[in-house]
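Posting this for the archive.
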Amino acid sequence: MDAEEISFTSLRDSVERNFRHIAESKNLPFIMEFDSNLPFAFTSDSKRLQQIIKNLLSNAFKFTAAGHVRMNVKLAEGGWSSDHPNLNRTGAVIAISITDTGIGIAPEKQRLIFEAFQQADASTSRKYGGTGLGLAISRELASLLGGEIRLASTPNEGSTFTLFLPLVYFGPSNSSPNSASEGKSNPRPSIALPVAMPRDERIEDDRANVEIGDLAALIVEDDPHYARVLLGLARDKGFKGLVATRGHEALSLARQYHPTAITLDIFLPDMHGWTVLNNLKLSPETRHIPVQIIPLEEERSHGLSRGAFSYLVKPAATEDLESAFDKIKTFVAPRTKRLLVVEDNDTERQSIVELLGHDDIEIKTVATGEEAFTTLLDRHSDCCVLDLRLPDMTGFDLLDRIHEEPSLRDVPVVVFTGKDLSGPEETRLRTMAKSIVLKDVQSPERLLDETALFLHRVVADLPESKRLMLERLHSTNEVLRGRKVLIVDDDARNIFALSTVLENQEMEILSATNGRQAIELIQANDDLAMVLMDIMMPEMDGYETMREIRKQPEFRNLPILALTAKAMKGDREKCLEAGASDYIAKPVNTDQLLSLLRVWLHR
C-alpha cells in the first residue's frame, strides 16, 4: 500500500476519462454524483482504489443493457459491518456507491460471487465471459485499504455495490487502529500512517523560461548527479534544459513543452524506459522528437529499431556526452532530411516517391546495390528504403556491406519487399534492418509510417492525405477490435488483469495456464492474432513453449509477446532467441502493452 492524498476532483476526472466513452458506446446514461459536503481530499492508495472502482464500473456496464449506471460519492452515516475494526473506530467514512439497472443477483448467490472463480450461474459466464476473479480481488483490496464492500441487489432490477473507506487510511482492516495509542490517555486514536516515500530530489531546470521555438533538451534521468551533469552539458551546448526523474513526468513534459530533443535513461523507478520511448513514438505530437537512449550495450539495436535517434552507454566519458549533444544539435538544425530508395522496378520506384514525397524530405532513387552503397558512402542519408530483389546483388548482400561499414551501421534501413521470407531470412534481416514492411494491402500506410518514424517527420506538417493514412493506421479500436489473443500464465490473477484490459478493447480472449495447453489452443485456433506468454511457469516454462511453437512452420510469424517479472541483463535477448517477437516486463504497463499490440498487429 502506498498512501497519498487524493482529491475528489481528480477521482471524478479519472472516472470520467475512463468510462464516459464506454457509456456512450452502449447508449447508457452515466450519472456521477459527488456530495457537496465532501472535503477537498482523502488519504488512500490511489492505484488500488482505481482497481476497485474500475472493476465495479466495468461490471455495471457489462451487465446492464438498458437503464443507467450511477456513481455516488458521499460521507457515509452507516451501512458498513457493525464489527468492522477500522470503520467503527475511525472518524469520517466515505461511501462510493455504484448502481446499475442490470440483471441483478439472487440473494442466495450474493455471497458466492465474492469468492474466486465464482459467478452467479454458468449462463453468466457463457453470455458475458470473464474469470470470476474481479470481485474477489476487489474485496481483498478494500480490506487492505481499511474498508469493505457491501452489496444490495434484486434480480432483474439491478445492483448497488458500495465501497466504504476511512477518510484517512489507517492500514489493513485486520489491524487494530488503536494499537498505536494503547496505554495513553489521549482518547482519539493515534495511528501512524505509512511512512511516505522520500520525494525525488528537485533539480532546478529551465522549464519556467522555455518558450515555443527554443532549443530545449528534456533529460530523463533518476540519478540526480547524472541528471545535473547532463543538464550542465546541455546548457553548455546552447540548450535550455528540462529534467524528469520519472517516466510519467517525462511524458507529461514532452507533451507540454515539445522539446527539441530527449535523452532517455532506460532504467527508471516508475516505468521502463522502453515504455516511455514507445509512448513518445506512438503519439503524433512527439514521435518526431529525436530521442537518445541510455541503454545496456546489447539493447542498442532494440532502441534504434523502436525509433530512437542514437544511444549512449553508461557510464559515459565527458567527451562522449559532449559529442552526443553535438550530434543532436546538428541533427535538429533546420534542414531537409534525405531518403534513399533502392528499387530496380521503375513503376514501383515512382510509386514510393509519390507515397513518401513532400517538401520536408529529399528523395534520391537508385536501381542497383552498388549504386546504393556508393551513394550512402558519398552523402549522408537519414533513412533508406530497400527492396531485396536487385539486379547485381541481393538485398541481404547489401545489408551485410552496410553493416560492416562503421560509418553506415546506424543508418535506418526499412526493407520493403514482396518476397516470402523464410524463418532464417527474417531473423537475419531483423539483426540488420530497422524494419520490415511486406508488400500487401496495408503496405503503403506501413511504409509511410516506418519511414516517417526514422526520418523524424512532424506528422502535423504532412499533407492531409498522408496524415489521414497515419491516423487510420494508428486507430486503436480499429486494429484491436475483434482480434483473438491467447494469454498464457499460471497465475489466474494475471490472466484476469490482462483479460480486463484487452476485453475493454473488444478483443476476444483465450487463456491457458501452462505451455502444453497453450500449444493445443494455438493449434485449434487458426484465427489467433497474438500470444501473450508468461516466462516463469512450472514444468514447461515460456522459453520452452515458444521454442515448441516456432518449430511448427505455420506459426513462424505468429506474434508472441513475452511477459516476465525478470528484468535482468540479457533477459530480452533470451526471450527473442526462444522465439518471442517482443518483450515486456512485469508489472505490465497498460499503455505499453496496447502500444505493442498495435505495433505487432499492424505488422
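The chain has 21 helices and 22 strands. Confidence is low (pLDDT under 50) at residues 117-132, 174-199.
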